[in-house]
Design goal:
This protein has about 130 residues and is of the alpha+beta class. It has one domain: Beta-Lactamase, CATH 3.30.450.30. It is about 45% helix and about 25% strand. It has three helices and five strands; from the N terminus they run αββαβββα. The chain has a five-stranded antiparallel β-sheet, with helices on both faces. A hairpin with a 2-residue loop joins strand 4 and strand 5. Helix 1 runs antiparallel to helix 3. The N and C termini lie close together (about 10 Å). The model has no long low-confidence stretch (mean pLDDT about 90).
Length: about 130
């Protein structure tokens, strides 16, 4: 994927997330098995956060997709992790994923967020 494709993906992810959750969005990180890039961080947050640990944890979702497979619950859609001051929402499509950190938001906004991110990832498939 060339630089312009990377920029287009980043712009679309920011736009899709901003549209669904507005100023509650804290950061967006795109990742694959081999690499990652923080494509957005809100201006009031520290830019020197240690992303390696977060990315390593969210990459476990590639295995989770295979583990859950076609369970009686249906297909995997997204994962939410709750913290004292916000949330992490992870969406994986094929061999690529995104996690978005947010301030506290309403439960129904998570599904809207995941649907928007999934749409962008599907639109930019590498296969």
């Amino acid at each position: 994927m060339g630089a312009s494709s990377d920029d287009a993906l980043a712009d679309e992810l920011v736009s899709a997330c901003r549209t669904t959750i507005g100023d509650s969005m804290r950061s967006i990180t795109y990742f694959t098995v081999e690499d990652y890039e923080q494509v957005y961080i809100r201006s009031d947050l520290e830019r020197d956060a240690e992303l390696d640990r977060f990315v390593a944890n969210e990459r476990l979702g590639f295995t989770s997709q295979q583990t859950y497979g076609d369970s009686e619950l249906g297909a995997y859609e997204f994962t939410i992790r709750a913290f004292d001051r916000g949330y992490v929402t992870r969406v994986i499509v094929g061999d690529r994923g995104v996690y978005v950190t947010t301030d506290k938001i309403h439960m129904d906004e998570f599904e809207e967020l995941a649907t928007a991110v999934r749409g962008v990832l599907r639109e930019h498939r590498s296969d």
